Every structure is written in structure tokens, then in C-alpha cells.
Amino acid sequence: MRTVRLNLKDASYNIYIGAGLLKETGRLLMEHGLRKRAVIITDTSVDRLYGSTLEHTLDNCGLAVSRFIIPPGEDKKSLDTVKTLYGSLAEVLTDRTTPVLALGGGVIGDLSGFVAATYMRGVPLVQIPTTLLAQIDSGIGGKVAVDYGNLKNIIGSFYQPKLTIADISLIKSLNKRDISNGLAEIVKHAVILDEKFFDYLEQEIDKIYKLDDSCLDYVVFRSAEIKSKVVTEDEKDTGLRNILNFGHTIGHALETVSDFKLSHGEAVAIGMVAAGKISLKMDMLGNDGLNRLIALLKRAYLPIRLPDLSIESILEVIQHDKKVKNGRLRFVLLKSVGNAVISDVVTADLIRDVLVNWNE
Ligand SMILES: NC(=O)c1ccc[n+]([C@@H]2O[C@H](COP(=O)([O-])OP(=O)(O)OC[C@H]3O[C@@H](n4cnc5c(N)ncnc54)[C@H](O)[C@@H]3O)[C@@H](O)[C@H]2O)c1
Ligand SMILES: [Zn+2]
User: Fold this and answer.
1) Which ligand is nearest to the CA of 103?
2) Closest ligand to Cα 75
3) Distance 265 CA to ligand 2 centre (A)
4) What is the pLDDT of residue 325?
5) For range 167-171, the mean pLDDT
6) Does residue 324 have a pLDDT over 80?
């Protein structure tokens, strides 16, 4: 088992990473003083695979368990579901020491985190991320939220878990598209902050994609560590944490304009290539760096070409993006592989130029 410590002023916690950790959940909860009851929130797909394993480990440690199961899907990350869950909690959760265990991907993590943050003004939260993306990204850093209509993550808070348990063997049942989605954020972590990790990914990407245990263990650990370091320095997302938006400004716009036919990871992959091309145009990144990024994304089975979408619509969404500050776009650029900077000099014209001349 590996441990990443997320250091925060008054909410530091550990992220435990390893194969087979789900079965250790009861013991880990006990070690953290969570000994009496637990409430599991999960979705039907994850419950079918792992719900009873989790419940057994808690039973074995003498915890009284309640399990609430919702259907999977982003559309369930809503206030309606929050209301349903409040109703369920009201029946079983009568004191503020009972933890909510979020067993699932980013949807369950964000939704259960929001419920835990607000029910009785906050009950303990334990994240048990089950997708690659949730283990290295959404499950770390305390951003919890629900969507409102088509506004994503618009109602939320910062709420750190008491601990996070990332069992890498759960990733084995994930479909390949979701593996690639997670890999997009892993490549992002490497390319913005850690060239050595990027080298490692270049060397081992085929084994990682095939979910080789020791590679996966290291990759989840290092990626979680990078994200945790950034969060430690800027918990509330007012500075450095912006760097995690590399590839996301154009990525989000692509997701929206494609009507979510592009998955988040796919859109971010194309967005990272676009940001790389912009960095090249601005004489920051060399051709070699851009080509390395493109090659690695391809080997992770992620798209690297601009799909046939309206460029003007993409630009329009970017202008409305919440990262526009005082009329200027905050954009993350690459100086080299492993070294990103936040810039406010990228103009809509430059973005248009790169999108129009994509194949140059
Ligand atoms: N809080 C943050 O900082 C943050 C960061 C990035 C993304 N997010 C959010 O994360 C969400 C996306 O998360 P996601 O990609 O994990 O998607 P998800 O939670 O929708 O999970 C994807 C699918 O995989 C299934 N699944 C989960 N674990 C599985 C497993 N081990 N085996 C088989 N199937 C499994 C789920 O049932 C679901 O159908 C979005 O709502 C996004 O806004 C949040
Ligand atoms: Zn992302």
C-alpha cells in the first residue's frame, strides 16, 4: 500500500493506494476513529460489482451499514438526487459522526461529497473512487458539486474527505474508453509538472493501458501525488490550481459543442494538443515537445485531431468560460514538457488561428 499525504491547514488527510484495498476499508475506518456506523452511497453498476465486498468488510469490523444506490450517469448529479439522498439519510443518520462513503466514479464522489458537506452542516466523508479518473483527479482535492440544468458543477463547495481509499484492482472492470479518459488527466499531470513522470509514461504506456498491476500502482500514486501537491498549495483554486486546467479551456468547449459525444478525457486530449499548438505559435514550446505530447496521447487511444465542429461555436463557449477574468482569458501554456505556465495573453484570434490551421 502506498500513501499520499494531502497537507492542508486544518483538513489534512491520507490517500491510500493499492491493489485489494477495498477489503481493508473496515480496518482503515477503524484506524481513523470511524467505528460505529457507515452509510454507503453508490450507483447500480458499481454496487453490482463491489457493493457487497465493501459491506462485508464493514460488517466484519462491527460497523452498522446502510447502502443507498442511485442509477449511474451525469444526469443524476442533480439537486433532485441530493434531495432523495437527504431523505434517505434522515432515516438512518442521526448523529454527525457517521461517515458517508462515496463508492464510485466522479459522479458519485462529487454528489456524495456535496451531500456529506451539507447534511447536518457536514458529516465525515470517505472517498472510495472506483474509476481511474476519480482515483487520480476528481477524488482528490475536495471539490464537491452538482449540476444545475446544463450548468456543470455550478452548485458546490470545498469539502475534504477524512480519508481516500483507491483500490487499483477495481479499475480492471472499467471499460477501455474510461481508461483512456483517466489517462488523459494522467498525461496532463505529467506534462504540466513532471518531465520524469512523462518519460515514464512514454516508456510504459502500453503496459499501463493493459492495466499491468505494478505500472498502474505507480501511475495512480504519482498522479495522485502531483494533484495533491497542487491542491496543498492552492486549496481554493485562486492561483496555482488553475494549472490543472491545461487543455480544459478548449476541451470544455469541445465537449459542449459536440453535445457531449466527446467524453471529457477525449475533449481534454484535443484541448491539450490545441494548447500545445498555441504554445508553439507563441515560441514557448518546441516542435519536439508538441510531438511527444501528441504521440503519447495517441498511444493512450485518445483523439488528437480537431473534430468537424463549428469553430465559431467553440470560440463562443470559450468566451463564456468561467476562466475569463476581467475580459482576459486565463490560459495554461507549456514552456516545455513538464513545465506549464498560466498566461493571460492568449487572444480569441490566436485560438481561431490554431483551430482553423490545425493540420499545418
Ligand atoms: N471534483 C473534481 O475535482 C472533479 C474533477 C474531474 C471530474 N469531476 C467530475 O467527475 C465526473 C466524471 O467522473 P467519472 O469519469 O469517474 O465518471 P462516472 O462517475 O460517471 O463513472 C463512469 C461510469 O463507470 C461506471 N463505473 C465506475 N467505476 C467502475 C468500475 N470500477 N468498473 C466498472 N464500471 C465502473 C459508473 O457506473 C459509470 O457508469 C463528472 O461529473 C465530472 O464533473 C470532478
Ligand atoms: Zn478534467
Assistant:
1) 1
2) 1
3) 7
4) 60
5) 98
6) no
| Atom nearest to 178 CA in ligand 1 | 15
Please tell me the number of the ligand nearest to residue 48's CA.
1
* High-pLDDT (> 70) share of the chain, %: 98
The pLDDT value given to residue 54: 98
Q: What gap in Å lies between CA 347 and CA 282, rounded to an integer?
A: 11
CA dist., res. 264 & res. 148, Å (int): 18
Per-residue pLDDT at 252 exceeds 60:
yes
**Closest ligand (CA of 271):** 2
Q: What is the pairing mode between strands 328-329 and 324-325? A: antiparallel
User: In terms of pLDDT, which residue wins out, 345 or 215?
Assistant: 215
Tell me the best of 22, 44, 46 to mutate to test the pocket of ligand 1, counting ligand atoms within 8 Å of each CB and taking the most.
46
| Grid cell of 155 as nine digits | 452548485
Q: How many CA atoms lie within 13 A of 92 on its CB side?
A: 17
Residues with CB under 6 A from ligand 1: 43, 45-46, 49, 72, 74, 77, 104-108, 110, 130-131, 133-134, 137-138, 141, 143, 152-153, 170, 173-174, 178, 181
What confidence score (pLDDT) does residue 330 get?
85
CA distances from 16 to 1, 25, 136, 271 (A): 7, 10, 12, 31
Distance 314 CA to ligand 2 centre (A): 17
Ligand 1 mutation pick, 178, 183, 230, max ligand atoms within 8 A of CB: 178
Q: Using CB atoms within 10 A of its CB, is residue 148 exposed (0-12), middle (13-18) or buried (19+)?
A: middle
Task: Indicate whether 326 pLDDT > 70.
Answer: no
> Which residue's C-alpha comes closest to atom 9 of ligand 1?
106
pLDDT in tens, 55-113: 999 999 999 999 999 999 999 999 999 999 999 999 998 789 999 999 999 999 999 99
Residue 322: pLDDT band (50, 70, 90) is low
Number of C-alpha atoms within 13 angstroms, CB side, residue 111?
31
Query: Is pTM beyond 0.85 here?
Result: yes
Q: Whose CA is nearest to atom 19 of ligand 1?
A: 105
| CB within 8 Å of 16: residues ≥ 6 apart | 1, 2, 3, 24, 28, 163, 164, 165, 166
| Residues paired with residue 101 on neighbouring β-strands, in sequence order | 40, 126
